Amino acid sequence: MAIWFARSRNLVSSLRHNLCTSTILIKRDYSHRPVLTTSHQLPSTVFSSPFVASLLRHESTAVEKQPDELVLHSDDQEEALQELDFPGGKVGYTSEMKFIPESSSRRVPCYRVLDEDGRIIPDNDFVPVKEKLAVRMYEQMATLQVMDHIFYEAQRQGRISFYLTSVGEEAINIASAAALSPDDIVLPQYREPGVLLWRGFTLEEFANQCFGNKADYGKGRQMPIHYGSNRLNYFTISSPIATQLPQAAGVGYSLKMEKKNACAVTFIGDGGTSEGDFHAGLNFAAVMEAPVVFICRNNGWAISTHISEQFRSDGIVVKGQAYGIRSIRVDGNDALAVYSAVRSAREMAVTEQRPVLIEAMTYRVGHHSTSDDSTKYRAADEIQYWKMSRNPVNRFRKWVEDNGWWSEEDESKLRSNARKQLLQAIQAAEKWEKQPLTELFNDVYDVKPKNLEEQELGLKELVEKQPQEYPPGFHV
Amino acid sequence: MAALLGRSCRRFGFLSSGHGARSVSTETGKSLNLYSAINQALHIALDSDPRSYVFGEDVGFGGVFRCTTGLAERFGKNRVFNTPLCEQGIVGFGIGLAAMGNRAIVEIQFADYIYPAFDQIVNEAAKFRYRSGNQFNCGGLTIRAPYGAVGHGGHYHSQSPEAFFCHVPGIKVVIPRSPREAKGLLLSSIRDPNPVVFFEPKWLYRQAVEEVPEHDYMIPLSEAEVIREGNDITLVGWGAQLTIMEQACLDAEKEGISCELIDLKTLLPWDKETVEASVKKTGRLLISHEAPITGGFGAEISATILERCFLKLEAPVSRVCGLDTPFPLVFEPFYMPTKNKILDAIKSTVNY
Q: Which of A127, A349, B218, B348 could pair with B188 as two cysteines, CB 3.0-4.6 Å apart?
């Protein structure tokens, strides 16, 4: 991370600011900051406090005991015998006027398993991934790359109207999907097609949706990339941001009431956490004790809005505790870390019937969409750094290769097959006719009401009278 | 305040539904007010479908208008529960629950507070089936919300926001006029396989009393009802406003004007045919609602009837509605489409 920090004026200045602030605070002892770090990252002096020492994490799957800002110091204890008996539980008193600081002195660390060179960091906690699974994960990450590349080009050639890549976020896409059960209900944002790919959505199915043809399950009604599959428990994407979060709480509650061995899993970006629905979703899931895994892809940018313009908190992970939700920050470009964190979160959600929040730190290497040129608002070397040095697919490939599970030959075979399949899928999708015109009027309600019957009849008469005024390929 | 006070003292037996009476056969029920009729419908809904849920702000103890009284005790806190104070959360949660095949009956405490949930209703609930090509739907969702004037509600306890929702393909908008109607229409809304916004006239919660059959019955959606027959002019309204319109009809009758009164009941999708047939007979149309006149649903009815009955009309369509101001507290008697305003408009239209 150091290289990147050095490049960012914003971050450097914010670090300076934080360091400076924390020095003052330590001197004056106004506040006792929680230290959310693991043992090997702390200087030994910190362990003089038994309270901090108790934070030592032994297993990544265990929930870290929360350091408590308001835990009593010895001189407070007498006063604390008196408590405020408040609805929801007793609250101890203190005579010290003490504000909780706006942030920790250290940022919440980022859980990872693989280093930048794809080597497992010693003494790490993670859920083991065996050869078969690892190879499949890698294959799907690489296939997602090929799919993004070819669809992006298809849009550039004018064959589809719009596209949006997941470049840079392949590990979150695939590793999270691999960690879930197929029965878990996914409520996606829109940059998680890899989850659908993992679950068995074929390249033809992706292509059909992007072309809005007769085989598109959405019947050509939505823009490209708005996939959905009932068969694969993947709710149809809608463009509005964060609306799926409170819905996920309701889905999770339904699974809980039906005593299903499954949870709801919902995705969101960093920008989405500013929406009211983010608050609504987390709060409802917490209060209703619904099994929901919230996965936030913090990729640094919401279209052109940098995270420094999005929030003042230490990212998203710290927001969990305010809602009474367990949370973890994970390196989103480390497939093994994402897999471990999502799998553990899912287990907690299902066995303990509670929501869990995961912040996956990543980077949107591509433009927001084909309608965006991100070089207008961010540095080319920043993009390049994440594309090359922190590439999640390359990193995972190194690990798989080092294990002797993957070769150069496998690589070229996979990519050339995926490319071939995609080109075929696109050619086939292009040839399909569109849905018949009557599908314009179906599914607004379960049964077509009279006003729509009238409008359909009127439109059909007009189209038959002046077909040249309308696009061809629609059965009237 | 005379007209308003008059309204609050009325009983509503004369507005009993002929239609409802047909569908509920000859069985008579107990005299119930509107909130009790709603309560009865919710009991039946929860009892008849184990996968139905009732939730919203303060519904656990019975709700601020007592509509959910006794539900949590009978059906348990897993199925009837309080939610955090967050309308977009309530509706979003309801969409998720409904999308899993449940019936989610949600309460928004006042229609004035439904706007934070507007995005969830308009962009999510309404388009859920359409955008997925019918792979998914949230048809089990019903959103109940008390609406309309109450005599002292001011800006934020009086609004009638129905027109906003009538501009949204994919949802249904239903407003009952009386206890018997409320029960039958609510049960239809809950069981309808489409998301429904169900506005309850809060002025009538306690004031309207009529015999309500105790058994499980439903009144069809998208069917208007002629609740008073007449020859000189057609009056169209919904919800609490029908009571005022009925009074105007009675006064007009004394002056020799015969009014036909139609309860639209479902505003989206609405029953054009019933209104059209009536206007073709009377040649005149008056629409009345509490919501501001500009962009109100009366404008839609007016335009449609002009298209369909142009040559039959003897006079311009008249609209007696709320003013284009926020709903005002002390000026409420002036703001409201009172009996006096309606009677005046009836006379001008008939004498045009």
A: B218
